[in-house]
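Work Package 3 (structural annotation) set out to generate three-dimensional models for the target panel prioritized at the project kickoff. During this period the team completed the workflow that converts sequence records into discrete structure tokens, so that structures can be stored uniformly alongside our sequence database. As a representative example, we reproduce one entry of 186 residues exactly as it appears in the project archive.
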Amino acid sequence: MQEYVDIGWVSRPRGLRGQVWVTPYSDDPERLLQLQEFRIRAAEGWRMLRLEEGRLLGNRLSLLFEGIHSRTLAEALCARALQMPRRDLPPLAEDEVFLVDLIGLEARLIDGRVVGRVEEVLELPAGPMLEIHARGLEALVPFQRRFVPRLDVQAGWLELEVPDGLLPEEMLTPPTGEAAAEPPKP
């Protein structure tokens, strides 16, 4: 598992003193204001940031980091994901999962047919969508219990129950453990 996880998107500067607007990926964005340590990918590599001040304004965060005290410096942080150490994440309930942990899981249907791998989790207004890739194809599946009834992050898989037509037929493989039938030889 990754040592750091994305917790928000730095969208643009706010004002002239170096603050930035952050769109949080959390259902409890105020909790992020209690954190001190963040990181962001800069042109020269990962850059560590310490929170100087922050507040929740509507559904966004206005953050000011130590050493970032001008609009020009704030602009260099924009259009990037803000990350925090995994160790600072709150404990999960038994039926919860961090979306970042879904990336890389094998996606299979309830009958055992392998669909592909989760390559990305898209945070959309309607809810998270799993981007599944296989054989040069991709499909989007809503991350909702009715479409993903079971998963096991530790074992590396999730199970899909999707309506016909949601996944391209070409993505489907034979059930686990069975080889595809070879054509008879003349």
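The chain has two helices and twelve strands.
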